Structures are given as C-alpha cells and as structure tokens.
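Incident log entry.

Two folding requests arrived from the same account within the same minute. Monitoring flagged them as a possible duplicate submission, but the sequences differ. Recording both here for audit purposes.

Request one:
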Amino acid sequence: MTVYDRKTVLSMKLRSQIALRKVTRGEFFTRLQIVRSLEPIIQKTFKEVEEDRWRNQADNEPHGHPWHVSFHASQFPGDDPQACPRQALYRMMDFPESEPTSRRLRTLAAIGKAMEVELVRTWHEAGILLSASPDAEIQTGFELPSAWFTGSVDAIIKPRTWNKPVPVEIKTKDRDTIDRMTCGAQGPDINHVFQLKVQLAFVRMFQPDMWPGLDPVTHGYIYYMSRGDKKGERDVVTAEFRVDLDEKFFEIGVDRLKQWRAWFEEGYLPELNPGKRDSKFGHPNGWRWSKLPCAWCPFKKTCQLDFQASETDLTQSVGVNRAKLIRPEYDPAAARERVFKRWAGDRQMR
C-alpha cells in the first residue's frame, strides 16, 4: 500500500512536470494551436461538399417537390410593405443562390433540426402530437393551389387539458439572444411570426377535415431553445411567444401571391417604384440596396444588373446566364415548365 507522504507527493509532481517536457516539437506547437493538421482537411472537405450540393441542388426537394415550384410559408408576404416579388420570382425561376451554404450555417441548421426533432419526438411519445411524427418522410403540410402556395408545420399539439390544436414553430438561438428575450429586451423574429400566422390560418382552414371534433384553433407559439448553456445549468434555457390567428393578414398575403403568380405566368419582372437607373440609389422598388430586405438577398446582384439594363422580362433576366455558369445544364423553359406541371390542375380550372 502506497503511503502518500510529503516526499511521495513531491516526487509525483516532479515526474509529472518532467513528462510534460517530453514532447516533440510538433506536439508542442499543436498543443499551442499554432500548427493545425486536421482543420485544413476539414475545411477543404466542407467546401468541396457544399460546392457540390450547391451546383447539383442536393437540398432541392425537402418536401417531395422541387423547392422552386411553389411560394412557401417561410417567404409569405402577408402585409409586409417590403415583401419582394422579384426575389420570389427569381427563386421560382430556379436561379441558384449566390454562393454555397457556409460550414457555420450548415452546422447551426443541423443543431437546430436535431433539437427540434428531439422535442417533437417527445410530444409524439407522450401522445399529444397531432401532426406527423419526426420520423415521417414529409412533415404535415398544406397547400393553396390558387396561389401556388405551400406550407408545413414543425408541430401541432393538443395538450391533455385543452381541446384545440396548437401549432408550435420551433427555433433555436444563441444563449445571449435567449437571455434578451427572457428579460423582455427582444421579441421574436418577424419572419417567424409570419410563418406561424400562416400555419394558424392553414390549420383553421383544414381543421374540420383533419381534426374534427376539436375547438377551432385560436393561437400558437414560437418556441425558442438556446444552443448554449452556462456553467452549472442542467436544462435548456427557452423563451416562448404567443401568436394569435390573423385571418386578415393571411388574406392580404394570399392576394399578393396571386399577383406574383400572374407575373410569373406572364414572364414579367415587376418594378413597383423604380428610381434612377444611372444612380447608385436607383432601385426597382424604391428601397436601398444596402438595407433589408436587399442586404442579404441571394439574388441581389442579379436584381441590380436587371434593373440597370431596364430588363422587365423574367425569361431574359441576367440570372439565366448566371445560372448557366453554375449549372451548365440549366434551362429556363424547363424551370418554368416544372412550375406549371406542379400546378397543372389549377391552371386548367382557371
């Protein structure tokens, strides 16, 4: 039996210090993070894979149809004065976004999706989930053919003591944002509010057929979960916001989508409030290129070039040639035909 007296402890400390000095130069620089061997390989791999996904549209059919053939709830215009029809029409032409998804964004999206799936699975196992289980290939979704409009939900639950469906939009945020939300310094993202309002309107519309016998839906919740924690915490920090049914908001947005649909059918690229084309302040909608919604728009450069060239024919947009540089096989006529084929029944009824 070893006796841990003063001499033994000092000897152990000395051996430990000597061991720390017995490292190669490479190990030493690696410990200081001066030399990185694995990180360059990982960065290169991510870049190659994301480039391939971007060029080959690997993420293009998340709900069973090509993404570009519909207007989606995540871009619903509602009564927002800065909802942009040009962005929606460029997307429907299947123009590629300006660059591949970043490693950071891909990772955050994967983390958020995993947290959402785990929560929805818990509701499913608890028997309070009305919408599709997280293992289903396609989420519970809705569509409005007259507006070429589709939407899906993260989850619809019926708590045991309630008798109505409750849509829940699940999102993740960094810890600092959640802290601001919980103290009232920050509210929900406006586009998340819009998404939930769309879901509420769709649930109200289809509820009699899908969940008969329940009281009409009146509200839902945006539920934010923190992606980080602080020392000593043993649970996820969250924030939630109630959003009420807003049928007027939905009606206004649907009317706008119908107008956007008509422009797509005509091949017209709208200019709502054009400014001077020879000025850096000129804009087809009278906005500022450096401000939202243009600042981070994936089609910003295409829109600028079209406007400078006075191009209002969607099929002649500079986006066609830009798309061919990324995907040589791109065919604008085929892209339009995919949209028309998706909604062929509705086109015949009109």
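Request two (distinct sequence, not a duplicate):
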Amino acid sequence: MVSTLQMVGSKALGGAERWFGRFVRALGELGTAPEVAIRRGSELETLDLGGARVHRLPFRSVWDPWSRGAVSQLLRELSPEIVQTYMGRATRLTRVAPGRRPLHIARLGGYYDLAPYRHAHAWIGNTRGLCDYLIGNGLPQGRVFHIYNFIEPAEPVAPSPLAALRRDLGVPSDAWVLLASGRFVEVKGHRYLLAALARLPREIGGRPLRLLLLGDGVLAAPLRAQAEQAGVGERILWAGWQVDPAPYYQLADLVVFPSLEQEALGNVVLEAWALGRPLVTTRFRGAQEIARHGEDAWCVPCADEAALAEGIRQVLLDRGLADELVEGGRRRAQEDFGRGPIMRQYLDLYNRLSGA
C-alpha cells in the first residue's frame, strides 16, 4: 500500500472539510492507514477521522515560517510516498523540490487563482470542467487528473429523534422545511435565496414555510440584516454548522442550493441525492456537468431569485415531481458517485504516480 499524508489547514468546518473526513475514513477502511495533518485548535478536531493518526500543526498563515517549518519537519519524520494537500493554506506551506519525495498532489475543489498551486507535482480536480480550467491555465495535461467526490448512503434517522429535533428548532408540525447548507460566502448565493424567500408567500398549499440554514461565515451578519429588512427573519432557522448534518437533511422537504456560476462541484448536491431529498439547484458550473434537469434536480438560472422562488414553489406543490427527483438522485448517488469506484480511482492514481 502507498503511504500518504493528507493535509488540510482549514480553521472552520464546511462541505470540503466534511468531504476530507469521509475520504480519510475511506482510506483507513481500505487498509492504507493514512497519516493526517490538520490545524491545531480548528473545528476539524471534531471530525470523525476513523483510526487515522492525527498531527496538529500551526497552519497559522501561508507566510508563517514556523508553520512551514512544522510541515517540513513532519514530512521528514513520516517520509510518506505521497502528500496530498487541500486548498490554499496547506498547499502553499508544502514545498517539495521537483524530483524529490514525497510526491506532492494538490487537490482542488474550486476555480482558484493557481499561483499557490503551481509548485505541486500533480493536481486533482473534482470536476471535468475544473480540470479543463487547470490545463487551460498552464498546468501540464499529463499531471492533471479528474476524480469526482463520492457520497455514502445515509443511515435513516428514527422518527422520534427527528420529531425531537423539529421541536428543538421550533418548526411547526405542519411546516414545509427548506434546507440550504453551505459556508456564508458570496459564491454560495445565499442572498438570492433570501430574496427568493421574500417572494414566496408565508404559506404554500396551506402549510407555513421555514428555511433552515446550515452554515456560518463572513456574510452571516449581512445575511441576517437582509432577512430582517425583507421581513422574513421569523421564517429562517439559523442552525450553524453541524458535524452530522444528516438529521437536518432528513427533516427537510426540499434542499435548495443557490450557488453562483463559479461553484465547482457542490457537495450539497451529492448529499441531497444520498439522503433522499428533492433538490432545487442553480445551474452553476458543477451542476451543469453532473445534474440532469427534471430527472435528479430542478435547475434554475444562477443569481435569479424569481426563478429560484418559482422552482421551490413548483417542486413543493408537485409531489410526483419531487418523488421523481428523489429517485433519480438516489440512482446517481449509487451509480456515479459511490465510494467504491471513486476510491479505486484514487488508489490507482497513487500507485501509478508512486511507481508501485
């Protein structure tokens, strides 16, 4: 088995960090015993990383010599065959000379400025469109690899805990529950979702409407102010980040993903499919690649609150359509984004690049 060190320098949890946890656990279950480096004192310390040995590094800034030294020392101590870094901070702090070991793979999940990533030895993009972007911006085609994220089947939550969660959140027993999950940053499009909610009536089909937001971030205060100004504040439940979001998804009647065009993949799409919830999503770049309108998702234009509101209303009222989207999503989660095929691609790539 190829030895790997998986490194992420994030401070807070988000969709990418939850994916990191799933990936590390999957590596461990396949017998690869990955080493893991995360930021000391970060929210990632709450993740279930299986039996992986966890190293807590400073990861204080991309320019911090202490953090860079800690990364270099860990590489010397562990001597992994491959170090895989996630996002900018861990990637910038990892410096391995060309032709030296370990082989440095930078995994990207967004259309970032590539300057912090060019020094890696190989790159993984989680959509074909993202890989085209990497190659189009000068990275060598023979060292850019496309591998999708995977999603695992969800264990159903028993009715009693779901009822208790509904009560704790203060959701009326007859309310429609819309769920949106994501970091409160511009690309996630939350302001258009709040504007869409303001366009919708307080009740749809005689049932009150509630929006459950899972997440946090730099736009939290502006979004709360927007909700109050639009008169929809009392219809929104701000639940923050949840290490295990599955019960919240299962409480929802509809998942809404309002991201803007620059979104690469969107783990929420996969989570909605795996958790058996109908999905209304915008046609961001990743959705254009993986979602099929009317089959596994209801797709609307980006940054269009009127179209988003109408999509929500239509799927809520047409339960036949909602059921078709759920069934289509479940098939996609199993057939195209299952753990087994995706992990085989990763292990094959590790073996190929390491010469195993």
